[in-house]
């Protein structure tokens, strides 16, 4: 984890079920060139990725690479 610049503008997923009794959502900022920051709304913990890393992650997720069998 790195220090997150103030210029990141985080957006919460439209599928987030955020409420005061259970404030767990993922927020993503893509407004800084070649960087993507992902933040836990409950803890503020943030992880920064390169744009290439983020694209590769999204492609893998779409292909089911991270699906866990129940």
Automatic annotation (TrEMBL):
Residues annotated as domain DUF397: 10-62
Domain of life: Bacteria
InterPro entries found in the cross-reference section: DUF397 (IPR007278)
Short name of one Pfam family: DUF397
This protein's name: DUF397 domain-containing protein
Species the sequence originates in: Streptomyces zagrosensis
